[in-house]
Please model this.
Amino acid sequence: EDKVVQSPLSLVVHEGDTVTLNCSYEVTNFRSLLWYKQEKKAPTFLFMLTSSGIEKKSGRLSSILDKKELFSILNITATQTGDSAVYLCAVHRIQGAQKLVFGQGTRLTINP
Amino acid sequence: GAGVSQSPRYKVAKRGQDVALRCDPISGHVSLFWYQQALGQGPEFLTYFQNEAQLDKSGLPSDRFFAERPEGSVSTLKIQRTQQEDSAVYLCASSLAEPGWSEQYFGPGTRLTVT
Model:
């Protein structure tokens, strides 16, 4: 059965700190891994990763995928209170069920 | 442009009532998904449409759950004889292309509370 595990489940840091969120997966016929940010409403798309070792960046956020070790990390540098949210990781398969399999999410709290 | 919209945003139903949840995907998006998100959990897949065809309904938890997308645009998720365990946020997502090759855009969700 496809599985996505995120760690830590919860993280509290001070504004300005750098954080690393982890996502490991077990899925057959992997196609892509996606990161979403969820505040009190719709998950909003951050990154889609398909190739190993290629970092994707957007401002203070960056992410990389390791298809050999089956994990991805999401880095946030110089955190701000607006980064407080649940960060979701999801994976997609090449064949079979056309769905995203989500992890439980990491709840990130940035204190001023 | 307009994103994915869902209605109602909140729904309170008495146990045993039927409910209908609506999703308006982004115009032109062929793929539409429904997910169920329990408190403190990640979304879990319910069903997937490509245009009007329901290609995967493996995540629907029981035969009380039914989804349709008759004209390949708006979709409705219907839950019959609601139970307390159906209380959750129901998220709709759409994507432009075949799943896996483009990101899914999510609506704000419908929070269903069954009392």
